Amino acid sequence: MIDFGFDKLALIGAVALIVIGPEKLPRVARTVGHLLGKAQRYVSDVKAEVNRSIELEELQKMKSQFESAARDVEHTVHQEMSQVSGSLENAWQEPSPAPDGPSSAWAEPPPQFRPVKKNWRVKRTAVPRWYKQQSGQRQHVQSGAARVARFRPPGRGAKN
Questions:
Q1: Which of 21, 52, 77, 91 is at a distance of 20 to 30 A from 59, taking alpha carbons?
Q2: Would you say 28 and 20 are in contact if contact means Cβ atoms under 8 Å apart?
Q3: Tens-binned pLDDT, residue by residue, of the chain (160 aa)
Q4: pTM of the predicted model, to two decimals?
């Protein structure tokens, strides 16, 4: 690229001032600035387009690599499945040995699933008594009237 230093720019400005004149120099400088800006935008657009085309080529190359890898995996899985299905067919076609008794041929089926019954009373008794005392949980169930009678101050109708 052309190397413009300060001294060369000053020389070009002085020649332009003499040749063009002081009246027309600002308008010419503005026009030259617009043209340089357009040229820079054009160059940057071309660079961006070239970069996009390079990236597109790279993406297409990666896409073809992934597609070939996927085809290889599909082929391998298909081969393995055909081998396994063939071995299963062979095992199914082979005659099984004669059973000696009912327990050797067939095992007992597993027990049926039964849902667990939830009993809240059992659940409450699983908490230790010391924890209930510490956390302030009630240990004995009382009615509201029994609680009032228990905490009533002595002297007013209390039996003692």
A1: 77
A2: yes
A3: 567 787 888 888 888 888 888 888 889 889 989 999 999 999 999 999 999 999 999 999 999 999 999 999 999 999 999 999 998 888 888 766 555 555 555 677 777 877 777 766 666 566 777 887 888 777 777 788 888 888 888 876 555 5
A4: 0.39
Distance CA 20, CA 28 (A): 8
Per-residue tokens: 19: 């040749």
Q: ∠26-32-35 over CA atoms, to 5°?
A: 145
Sole residue written with tokens 């297409």:
60
Q: What is the residue type of 78?
A: H
Tokens standing for residue 8: 């060369």
| Tokens 């070009």 -> residue | 12
Q: What are phi and psi of 152, to 5 degrees?
A: -70, 135
How many other CB atoms are there within 10 angstroms of residue 70's CB atom? 10
- Reference 138, options 119, 154, 124; nearest CA is 124
